[in-house]
Structures are given as C-alpha cells and as structure tokens.
Amino acid sequence: MVSVKKNSPTPGFMIRKTLSLSIILGIVFAPLHGAEVYAFSVLPITAKSAILIDHSTQRIVYAKTPHLKRAPASTTKILTSIVAVQNMDLNRVVTIPAFAEKMPPSKIYLKTGEKYRIKDLIRALLITSANDAAEALSFIGGGGSRAHFADLMNRKARSLGCSRSHFVNASGLPAKNQYSTAYDMALIMKEAQRYPFLVETMGTRTMQIQSRAGRKIFLKNHNKMLWQNSRAVVGKTGWTRTAKYCFVGQINFNGRKVFVSMLGSLRLWKDLKTLVDYPFGLALLKRYPNHTKGTGREGRMKIQLALKRAGFDPGQIDGRFGRKTLRALKKFQKAKGLRGDAIVGSRTRNQLQRFTQ
Questions:
Q1: What are the sequence ranges of the domains in the chain?
Q2: CA 28, 33, 35, 38 torsion: positive or negative?
Q3: Could you tell me the pTM of the whole model?
Q4: For this structure, is 74 an active site residue?
C-alpha cells in the first residue's frame, strides 16, 4: 500500500497538470538527429505531419509528427523523377505503352504508340502531375516492369536514409503498403537538388511539350504558390481521398533555402502559407499583430537598437520583427518585470526609452 500525504497532489493530478502546462506553453517535441530533442511552436495547420529543414545548417526548423507514416500521394513523383534521371537518357525518345491510356487523372491523355522524349514525360509528371506519364516512365525505366522500377525507387529511398518509406508505384496513386513520412519526403526533396533540371521543372509555371509526330500538350503547374507568393516556393503537390493534401518542396527567400514537407492537410494553401512564413518570422508577426502598433520601420529599428543596448540581441537592425527580435523583446520585458507578450505597449516603451539615447 502506498501512503499519500494529505495535501500532496495525486499522481493523476500531476499528470493532468503536466499535460495542461504543455498545452499552455504550446510546445511540441520531436526526436531529431539521434538523441537530440528540439522544441517547436505549435502552428495552426491541419496537416497530420510536417517538417521544415534549413538547407545550409541541416537543422530542423519546425516539425509536427515528422515520422508519422502517411500516404504521400503525388509527391511520390519527385522520387520517380530522380530515379528516371539517374537511369535514363533525358533525350531518349520512347514509345508510350497501351496501358497508359487507361490511367486515371490527373493525366495528359497520352496515346498508345506516341513517341516522346524522356525529359518531356518528366516535365508532365512534375508540372501537371500526369499519372499516365509517371507510369509510362516506370514501365520503360523498369525494363518493361513497373514492379522493377518500384524496387529501384525503394533502393534509392533507403540509400537516402528514408527508413520509414515504401513505394509500390511511380504515380502515387492509392496502393496497399505505399507510405512515407514528412521527414523522408524532405530527404527526397533534398536529393532532388542534385538535378537542376528537376528543380527548374518544378518551378515552371506553364510550358508546352509535343510528341514526335507534333501533337502539342499544354502544361500548367498545380503549385499555386508560383503565382500567389513573392518567395520562390517550388515543389510537388499531391492529393487522394486517403492521403488528403500534400506538398513537398523548397522555399527560397533572401538567400536562404528551406525544405518543406507536409502530408495529410485539409487546407493545402493555407497550411502551406503558414509553413512558408514560419522560417522567416512572418508567422510570429501574425501571432502578435499589435506588437509594433503606431510605429513605422524607423520606429521598429529604434526598438531593436534599444534592445541591443540593453543587452538583448535582436539580430539585424533592419526594422523587421522576426523570431530573434521577438525573443529578445520577451526577455527584455520579463527582465523589467513586465508581461513577456512581445507587445510594445506604453510600459514597455517607457522601459525601452532609457536605452534610446
């Protein structure tokens, strides 16, 4: 029998208190790089799994259940294109097999016996997510066996460290025992960097390909971020009823590159926009919409300079309140006995005023 002191909290109470504290703090933990553990802010995304990896440092910027196995849908085609580039001559002209006509959409309606260059089929599968082009490539690249091409895909994935992935087809169409994770798909996107043709193709808005007989096919990219965002967000979309919305790609902004991978989203573009904003501090600005109320860029620079003089490093003095500035502002407020909310109200301004001279 275990005795419990009269005023001591029960184990159940302590568990509830710990869980409540975790929710209040808004922190999620994910195992990364072996035994290392990092904490990440909770982002308002519906995706079941997501990850952001900085290209230059290889550090994980954000993660949400990154090792959860999910159907990758058409983001699979990134791996398909990598295997095709590695094993096939891009300028080789190939003949479309009969089964390609029967593939379900999305597709470009290839016809039996038509001839295309390998590079144009890759363009079709990466730009318009053409299932018929993907499966035709797998048949040709697998020596007449789509199963053999899938084996090549799995070998490549394992060589990249994708330990929680298994691929059955080249298109990403629903199939038993086909799965991956946000982390593994980010590794696959990282590998795609070795092939400029693939990255350039994923970043192409529209183009036209044609068969050897001259039939022209217009391609329009499914990635709306190419039109809607000032930053370069290139990658591959995906959707099936089981997988929901998916996206795997990279963000390029102000000389910084970040890989993004998201699986199982219910709001593709809204979730992706939140993830794209996060590495550059913009998502945090939305969480504190009034933290610089009444100040212009010069005013924000003065705040940053005051923080720096007070011994709280805000990063570059540029008038942009990114994560580093917000973190410094919170620490300053707490050091002065104020609420650490990153909002520059009258009391915070009075404290900062002492460091503006």
A1: 10-42, 73-280, 286-353
A2: negative
A3: 0.72
A4: yes
